[in-house]
Amino acid sequence: MPGEGPADARIMLIGEAPGWNEDKQGRPFVGAAGKFLEELLASAGMTRDQVFITNVVKSRPPGNRDPLPDEIAACAPFLERQMEVIDPDVVVTLGRFSMARWFPGERISRIHGQPKRVGRRLIVPMYHPAAALHQQALRATILEDFGRLPKILAEAEAVKRAEDSSGAPPVQQMGLF
Asked: Does residue 6 form part of some domain?
């Protein structure tokens, strides 16, 4: 499952792997975690159709287990290409498996909601929406982190405008189709 969303999305959300519901429907984040994700996006003044949603692993691991390192590595070129084509200003990692790509060795409980500039993008580690379904105490934290997304996006856009006005030639983006 490659993911879904607009080819010019300014925000890319990256989860870990498709679950049972996602596998059946062929879409990311459609089960209970997906419903909560839509609520989180709404709390930030956004809708699902404004963001690109994908996963680090593109198919459901057997038994819905955590993705293995070799599965993540095998899917990495696909995620890289998606990021090149969509070219989001902000990447939100949802959970520890996508977070580990940019923040190896970190704990999500320590760095959630704290954007970090990597190249010209802001990478924002956040708890996976399913975490709030298993631990209700995380719900408020996740809502608070998502509530900061509009400000984070505005910051990323300001940096992009500054870079664009610096005289550097614009980069041509290829279409998805």
From this structure: no
